[in-house]
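hey so u asked for the seq, here:
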Amino acid sequence: MRVIGGESRGRILKAPSGYRTRPTSDKVREAIFDMLPHRLEGLKALDLFAGSGAMGIEALSRGAIRAVFIESSRVVSAVIKANIRACNLDDRAKVMVGRLPQALMRVLKMEGPFDIVFIDPPYEKGLAEKTLDVLIRGSGVAPGGRVVIEHSAREETPEETADLVKIRMKRYGSTAVSIYERENIKDGQKQKTG
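ran it, structure tokens below
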């Protein structure tokens, strides 16, 4: 597993061993970033169920100004920190150990909203929708922001929820990726974002 693009391109990332993490393959990660805006400079990213931290690290490597990682395991969090250090991204990253939704609500109060949110929960446990609900209640997605959910291809995600609308869904074998965009609301009217 490696960083695919940007300033840390080619750096090898460690995956937590002995834990039930499922790192996003390089192929799927590259496809996800091809579906996101090509310029990430100045954007803030949030990596939930962070595992190795590959998604947030990729966003930082491609110019995101800040990334926050939430992971429930202290051991796995140490791997994320080591990966961030190996890519020389410490000054723009924060790793938080905690369970969702409590840890997410704390982060949203301190650092939200975010321009890009990555959600990669254990498959087929209904955690993606629950996490979306917390994001919406906590105003966690900036206007025009994107939410990327990695989920089982057998699992359906909603077409829209509150002000998030699904704009893409692609399958990669047993994995699917759904991308949502938060609509801009101005003077009570929805505005198109790029």
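The chain has one domain: 26-191. Strands lie at 44-48, 66-71, 93-97, 114-119, 141-152, 160-161, 164-172, 175-182, 184-186, 189-191.
lmk if thats what u needed
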